[in-house]
Specification:
The complex is a heterohexamer, with 3 copies of chain A and 3 copies of chain D. By secondary structure, chain A is mostly helical. Chain A is 66% helix and 1% strand. The chains are: A mainly alpha, D alpha+beta. Bound molecules: adenosine-5'-diphosphate (3 copies).
Amino acid sequence: MNKKNKYATAFLALLAFTPMYCLAGEGPSQELYWLNNIWMMVATFLVFIMHLGFAMLETGLTRSKNTVNILFKNTGIIAIGLLTYAFVGFGLMYPGDFNGIFGYCASALPLNEMFATDAGIGYADGCYSLWTDFLFQGMFAATAATIVSGAVAGRIKLGSFFIFTVLYVGFLYPWLGSWKWGGGWLDGIGFYDFAGSTLVHSVGGWGALAGALLLGPRIGKYVDGKVNAIPGHSMPLVTIGVFLLWLGWFGFNGGSALSADADYTSFVLVTTCLAAASGIVGSIVVSTLVQKKPDLTMALNGCLAGLVGITAGADMLTPMQAIIVGLVTGAIAVVAVIGIDKAKIDDPVGAITVHLVCGIIGTLAVALSPDVTFKAQIIGVLSYGVVSFAFALILFSIIKATIGIRVSAEEETVGLDVTEHAMSSYTSVS
Amino acid sequence: MNKKNKYATAFLALLAFTPMYCLAGEGPSQELYWLNNIWMMVATFLVFIMHLGFAMLETGLTRSKNTVNILFKNTGIIAIGLLTYAFVGFGLMYPGDFNGIFGYCASALPLNEMFATDAGIGYADGCYSLWTDFLFQGMFAATAATIVSGAVAGRIKLGSFFIFTVLYVGFLYPWLGSWKWGGGWLDGIGFYDFAGSTLVHSVGGWGALAGALLLGPRIGKYVDGKVNAIPGHSMPLVTIGVFLLWLGWFGFNGGSALSADADYTSFVLVTTCLAAASGIVGSIVVSTLVQKKPDLTMALNGCLAGLVGITAGADMLTPMQAIIVGLVTGAIAVVAVIGIDKAKIDDPVGAITVHLVCGIIGTLAVALSPDVTFKAQIIGVLSYGVVSFAFALILFSIIKATIGIRVSAEEETVGLDVTEHAMSSYTSVS
Amino acid sequence: MNKKNKYATAFLALLAFTPMYCLAGEGPSQELYWLNNIWMMVATFLVFIMHLGFAMLETGLTRSKNTVNILFKNTGIIAIGLLTYAFVGFGLMYPGDFNGIFGYCASALPLNEMFATDAGIGYADGCYSLWTDFLFQGMFAATAATIVSGAVAGRIKLGSFFIFTVLYVGFLYPWLGSWKWGGGWLDGIGFYDFAGSTLVHSVGGWGALAGALLLGPRIGKYVDGKVNAIPGHSMPLVTIGVFLLWLGWFGFNGGSALSADADYTSFVLVTTCLAAASGIVGSIVVSTLVQKKPDLTMALNGCLAGLVGITAGADMLTPMQAIIVGLVTGAIAVVAVIGIDKAKIDDPVGAITVHLVCGIIGTLAVALSPDVTFKAQIIGVLSYGVVSFAFALILFSIIKATIGIRVSAEEETVGLDVTEHAMSSYTSVS
Amino acid sequence: MKLIIAYIQPVALKAVKTALFEKEIYKMSVMTDVLGCGQQKGYHENYRGAAKEVNLLSKLRIEIAVNEDHLQDTLDAITGAARSGKIGDGKIFVLDLGQCIRIRTGETGEDAIG
Amino acid sequence: MKLIIAYIQPVALKAVKTALFEKEIYKMSVMTDVLGCGQQKGYHENYRGAAKEVNLLSKLRIEIAVNEDHLQDTLDAITGAARSGKIGDGKIFVLDLGQCIRIRTGETGEDAIG
Amino acid sequence: MKLIIAYIQPVALKAVKTALFEKEIYKMSVMTDVLGCGQQKGYHENYRGAAKEVNLLSKLRIEIAVNEDHLQDTLDAITGAARSGKIGDGKIFVLDLGQCIRIRTGETGEDAIG
Ligand SMILES: Nc1ncnc2c1ncn2[C@@H]1O[C@H](COP(=O)(O)OP(=O)(O)O)[C@@H](O)[C@H]1O
Ligand SMILES: Nc1ncnc2c1ncn2[C@@H]1O[C@H](COP(=O)(O)OP(=O)(O)O)[C@@H](O)[C@H]1O
Ligand SMILES: Nc1ncnc2c1ncn2[C@@H]1O[C@H](COP(=O)(O)OP(=O)(O)O)[C@@H](O)[C@H]1O
């Protein structure tokens, strides 16, 4: 049971709230197994649809001349994410008993069997099947690379991005994941990250920062020391993206309960939604104050900020604390987007703000709970930060030094749709 | 058990179809509790996605110069809806034992506790958890304001709309809801509204009518006594909106069964879908006859008309009756849209037609069932109508008299995106 | 139990993997019945949303002047599909005991009863309710016509298409379906088609081929013997379409397990997703080789190719075999799209490639499993092919000879939105 | 023959068309994706905190070829219908038109214009 | 030097381009968001029951600057390729072009045109 | 009075506008949906295996009416700011402008231009 739900269980036991059936000595009933599994499958679907959400968010916030390229990247990422996770990632992330730092279980997903021998009700105490486990975790994996995609949009070479993706999703994400969710050393010292403010979002966010730094800004973004708005080309697509991401978060957080425990799971959904709602309010207020007029993209980023913020502690904070986390992350998101722009780091979709900045805040906020220490959270944030930022920086640097990382100025000016794909995203005359 | 499922239970007992487990003396099993709760969580997700549906429908049916504004309103509404429901609405709508007209339960949602003392399997006889209950009902709440949003699009001041929203969602909707679903006086006299043809849709529709009347039509809509088409700017967005709304209705109606009872819940889905399908057919036929050519927006409105129409009686009518309700509401929707336009009430999205007109028809249609009286239905329709229309009219009038309700002619001409948000929804040159 | 799950059961028994509860002598528990039913309802929702996916795919891959027409067709199809299935199709497809070739059960869906006498836990051994059964199967039905819609886009008369749809969905699809899923003669000889590579996708694909052949290409598609690209007008819509289709496939295949059996169902989801992912990879690789630059529409078609390919054997192939099926169908999809174009068959969305070509490959690939014979698969593919192609060809020919099938050249040039609907899909000046 | 180019506010199109039809001017071409920069101040957009001065506002551009004797009528119709009195109403430019050909018939000159 | 403005049906673009290329006219500019109002009757839209007369139909506007000696060739190419014989085929206008400058090199006049 | 028509690369718009403002030319109109075909080779699109030669590239078209005495300044501003030295930089055409009317006031001629 070297899975996340170890924590769910421990936590519930801690509160003596309701004993999980799997603590009761006798095994779970077939009914419980099946219904737990239904819940986890539904959560998997919801996390899947986040990829469409990310694709639309990124497309909408960038220019139409790069749309085919962005859609292509996002289509490729989910394929790469699932396949690398099937062949490597799943075994890296859940190595079973290991030294706590690096391990590998070669047989995690039995690719050549119809039904694996260790599958069935005994797999995770009846909380979900082997296959559901793989698919749910696999859907998470691709997320880290998708986050990077947004920050490097409009200037990165397609091939270079895919090489980065294969290694970031196939190796780094699951390896670092094992430190906590695989039962590794950070798990041992009491670091808490319920559904991945740090493990998923910050890891993605560090990659985004590394990419944005190494690539430099898009042409025309910072001219004569002034920040130049390069507006996204479609606000309806941005809105579709964010609503689908919120929808997906029901599965991202709700599924991270790792069983269908009625009170536990639904409690997590409440904190999640309240943080999203107050994230919107927080960013609308600050955006209206700072920018004079309320900015739709900020309101939507605020929603995501609240969601990322609550992800680490969705099962550890009270509803009121969730609202506060939402308000704070939503408010900070506005300031961070503007600040990162001032620092001349060009992040077209606000990925660094939403996933890195708010991921860190959210992870630290778990310490509001008496059961989690601030120290453990800091150690977790730092160790994930150092390793993933370094990895991304080195990986991008090697790619830069070898096959190159950035398209030519001319290609960027014409747009990646034409230069990388020989296609246009919108065709009116034909 | 002062919740809607009282009725589900009573209804089933009535038909002696299958005894609900919770009538059996012994409590429900943990399995039943958990699986009921899964169903209700899924229904919650589906109702959530209706908000994206409404946003797309409204955006697509209006001009592109107001798109940011519409998306912003819809993003704000869901945040306002959830937060006011958490702080006030839930307690207003389900006050427990009360005088039947107005009551309040301050502790409905325990905001400062991790797990409330009255939570758990006993909360609603194992039909869903406290948290699921709140979230499902909270998702409903924001709907009423979203309906209004469509009818006032393109000319209402942003701040004024949000003030209206806070009071309509935070106070009026839950207060009126308590009359029936909270176990109030209308519940007592046998008024039946399964999932809210009246409680949600008509209440929203009355607000829409009040808003449209007080604001007056958009500039250029009625010139020299003639109705002037102001076409919506994107039919794909309208279609996305309606399909997402239909999807959401699986949860809106299916979740209103308030348990996962296999036959009961799935029966409701069948009547719901047949009404939607025949609503499309009804409006296509009438639209082709009246307008000479079949109008896509009418076909899609007809789908929603059928859905709103069946909402009150989805568990009370036979499949064939559901088809008839769909045909009738779909057909009437076409006539009503044209008629309301002839009456010079400018409703860009047809909200008054779909939600008010078809909401009333649907509520009355429940009397086709032998278990429901026409008189009770009339009383329900009228009392909800009088109070919500008066409330909306007064509230809008106060706002109009104080901070103003309508943007200036110049702002309207330029478009609310630029004047209210300093943004454009679509940017081609940058 | 003349339903698909006969096979699921037999298959599981075969592998002696886990005995289905319904084999155990005593009936299923209420909990199992309800949770099975929840799963099947969720699957129904997912299949429903595929119709939005098809609508977006088709809209995005065609020109904006035909957008209203395409959205209208797709809205009409789902209405027609559900209603004909309620009145005729359900009884045709599941006639009960019959001669194996043609049968009809008039009382399949009791339209005038609230709760049918044979409903309840005994209906399908507690795997789902009568109502869920109807709705899930009904959602499948409309799919066949939707597939045709894509291939004939931009030139077919609206009325003629709807006449075709009524007969194809209302009669042909369910009649042919009875041969296998209704327990007919093909079921008897051991033909295997888990979720419909042949029964749904090829049947639709044959109709698409017949329609494309009889209509001829769009004006300007093949000029002076050269293939002329007529690019679709919106790549974001295409992407939305494909991601929604993938999402829907979780229900299409997952629901075809016909119970919530945790291992069985989730195993199916894994093969489904791995085939989709490798379909993307296969088509990206081949597209980059053949077309020099990676084509987004090919990558997305490749995803669908993988999904269609795995649909017949999702519960019969190992994960590794699923990956191979995906790679092969994804690769072939690119070649087939180009080849069909070279053969001067104009298929704007690649329906013939994805649904017919890959449907056949997928059906044959099931023979990789030791439990299925190649011969039975060939017989199935051929008999479905002959009958449905002949039926579609004759039906389209009769329509062509009577009311006509193709709009005039002038109407086609102006676009069907204006000529068939008197509307525009996008309006900028108003 | 003259070629008239008129920049007007998008909202004025309907009125301008009606006014032209009344003067029996039925032929014209309209360009919709036009941005104008003039005395009308424009506005500030504020996208994600980066101020963006938008001094290019949406306009319509109408092009009408007319024979000399219709010139004044056409100009009057446009100015009359497009004038709101507010800055931004637009401009009309008149050019000499050397030749005009109706593609369908091959007619040229004044016969081809109407 | 002359400036040729041609309004054509969108479907004719391909043929016109080919015809021009054959006459070795390689330089042109095309405006796509153009609506034309002429003898072609237009059609009625009917949006939600409100009739809407649409007499502005989609057209393309081609602009070509040519030297005198290429004028006739260019006109012939356009008329030849754009003519379907049906109402709505379009019009060609020819203006005197006073000056022409190639931005890249600063060349002016006849040298700059091609 | 002269009517200046300039085709430029879309990216150059900002620089051109700034250059014009510096010369105190504040009035102009910009058409955004413009495709240009010239020495710039274009590229090949490859949609679903069917090659598609795209020799129409995105351009912007600026139209500025000026009085004679501003002509040179305007031309200089445009050429200066739009020149990258690469093929595709664009062209400027200058036409004689017969008349100019400010719709708002009815002013005509040189007074109306600015
Ligand atoms: N000299 C000019 N050259 C080109 N276009 C012009 C010129 N002057 C005005 N325009 C066009 O006319 C529009 C209206 O002009 P503006 O100066 O704003 O208002 P007014 O004509 O009322 O003074 C401008 O937005 C621009 O499109
Ligand atoms: N006098 C004119 N001024 C401006 N544009 C014109 C004029 N006459 C025709 N056009 C343009 O040419 C198009 C075709 O003209 P139309 O009268 O419909 O056909 P035809 O040239 O065959 O008589 C019109 O839609 C319009 O765009
Ligand atoms: N003779 C012409 N007529 C109309 N437009 C032209 C002409 N020559 C050039 N253009 C416009 O100018 C653009 C740039 O011209 P091009 O020949 O590509 O570059 P350069 O001016 O550097 O030689 C073209 O894309 C086209 O829009």
